[in-house]
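Sanity check

After download, print the first record. It should look like this:
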Amino acid sequence: MEEVKDYDVSKGMTVEKLTEQMMESGGFTSKKLAVGVGIVKTMLADKKCVNFLSFPADIVATGTRGVLKDMIKGKMFDVVVTTCGTLDHDLARSYRKYYHGSFDMDDAELHKKGINRLGNVLVPNDSYGIVIEDKMREFLSEICKEGKKDLSTYELCWEIGKRIKNEDSILYWAWKNKIPIVVPGITDGAVGYQIWQFAQNHDFRINLMKDETLISDIVWKSEKSGALIVGGGISKHHVIWWNQFKKGLDYAVYVTTAAEYDGSLSGARPKEAISWGKIKEKAKHVTIECDATIILPIIFSALK
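Expected structure tokens:
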């Protein structure tokens, strides 16, 4: 048996050294975090491994957007799977500001003032729906004039990123580094709604089958695969679903706050995915139960 050791936190200690001590501390979520950092380090260093990153949109409304942007800027992951809200928030925040709020604010009063609340983040209408509508009409008109009328979601993300021209943007760096961002639920958000509206009067369509072909080709050609999966829902499932066709992920790190007892995908642990063949029986895996806005900056700092 290994001895449980106390932390010895000194001034100026690096995050990497801190996570090493978390491994020795014996418990509870801190050790899971240390194990997760180790798994991500291993899969990123494995030259035979194709690495996926999936996450939900809400964290893009927070400062965690900067961590996700830097991961993509640094080419840490080969494929990103997310939701339409990521496009919404990344586009909106490239031109407008979001603000600090509180979970306990009067939502009826906020609605009267044209301010939307996302947890403890405030999103004025001018910073969200209005700017997204204006920019997407402009971008889609330009894209159509260039003769691009049948795009996958990853191609659409590159087209938006190319036009944003803002180095704080996730989409900008995805375009710059040609990292595909796949959005299976593209119509579930403001950007998707603008696409639908535009398509009513223009010969323009989103071709989800091109996204599926891309992921299929990547998975079938890979020797190994790994994933950092933040949250749940469609983004999580799309990653593990496709990887079952290569007999499962070799590495998997889940970050979630969801409970397992209700049978939800968001709360399901890696061992359940093993029963489906979505993660290999001998894969390195861990679930870190914590808010992603806390965990992701630590993971990223430990990897640098």
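If your output differs, re-run the checksum step. Summary of this record's structure: The longest strand covers residues 279-289.
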